[in-house]
C-alpha cells in the first residue's frame, strides 16, 4: 500500500521529502506535489476570469468616453472649419493652401512646446534649468506629461539611457521611502497607544491615509487652483492623474501663459517664485508617490499577515488531519479484521448447522 504522505511517520521514510510553506506545524510533502501549484500561483481559471473582467472594464470605459468626448470633438471640428472659412472670406489675399501651411507650422510649433500666441522675443525657454529639471523628474517617475519632449537625436538617445537607468533607481528610492514612512508612522502610534499589532496597523493606515490625502491631495488642489487659475475639478483632475503616473499632459503645472506678466515697458517678466515653482511641484510629486507607495506597502503587509495566518491555520488543520488519520487508520483496520472474522465464523456456524440438520433428516448435504 502507498504510504500516507500526511502521516509524519510514513513521510519520514520518503526518500525526497521537502518542507511546505507552512511554518508551524511542519508538514512534509513529496516532489509529486510540486506539480500542483494551485497554492503558489494563481489558477488559470482565475487569470481568465480577471482577464475577462479587465476586457469588459475596458469596453465599458471606451463606451463611456466615446459618449462623453466625441460630441465635443465634433463641435470643435465644425468650429475650426467655420473659423477657417471666415478667415478666408475676410482675407481674399490668402488662399486655402497658404492657410493650411500656416496651420501646419503652428501645429508643429505647439508639438515642439512653443506657444505661437506669444512674441518670440518675450518667450522664456522651455529648456531652462527649472523646466529641464522638471522634465527629468517626469522621466524617472514614468509620468511623462508630454508637454515637452526631446526633438534632437542626441536628446532622444540620452533620454533612453537616462530612463533605463533612472526608473529602477527611483523605484528603489520609492520603495525605501515608502517603507520608512509607514514604519515611522506605525512606531509613533505604537508609542502613543498601547494596543495590539493588528489595531496599530488599522489605526496607522487609516490616519496615514487621512493625513496623506490632506497634505498631498487637498492642499495641492487649493494651491493649484490659486496659482494656475484652474477650477476645483481641473485641480483635482491634475492631482489624481499626476500621482497615479498617468500624466496625460493636458494640464501641467507651470505651463499656463498667464504666469508671464507684462511690465510697464511692455516686456515680459517672470515673478521670482516661478523659478522655483516647477522644482517644488516635482518635489511634491516625488513625496506624493512615496506616500502612495507607503499606503500600498501597508496594504501589502495586511495581506501578508492574513496570508501567513491562513497558511498556519491550514498547516495546523493538515497536522490534525494527519494525526487523526494515523490514529484512526489502525483502529479501522482492526475493526475491519474483527468484522471479517465474525462474519466468517457466522458463515461457518451456519454451514455446520445445515450439515447437522441434513444428517438428521437423512439427506445429503
UniProtKB/TrEMBL annotation:
Membrane topology of the entry: Multi-pass membrane protein
UniProt xrefs under Pfam families: Ion_trans_2
UniProt GO MF annotations: outward rectifier potassium channel activity; potassium ion leak channel activity
Gene3D superfamilies named among the record's database cross-references: 1.10.287.70
Catalytic activity line of the entry: Cs(+)(in) = Cs(+)(out); K(+)(in) = K(+)(out); Rb(+)(in) = Rb(+)(out)
Potassium channel domain boundaries: 124-180, 206-304
Domain of life: Eukaryota
GO BP term, example: stabilization of membrane potential
A GO-annotated cellular component: plasma membrane
Transmembrane feature ranges: 47-68, 126-145, 157-177, 202-224, 236-254, 281-303
Keywords of this entry: Cell membrane, Disulfide bond, Ion channel, Ion transport, Membrane, Potassium, Transmembrane, Transmembrane helix, Transport
Cellular localisation: Cell membrane
Recorded family membership: Belongs to the two pore domain potassium channel (TC 1.A.1.8) family.
Name of this chain's protein: Potassium channel, subfamily K, member 2b
The species this protein was found in: Gasterosteus aculeatus
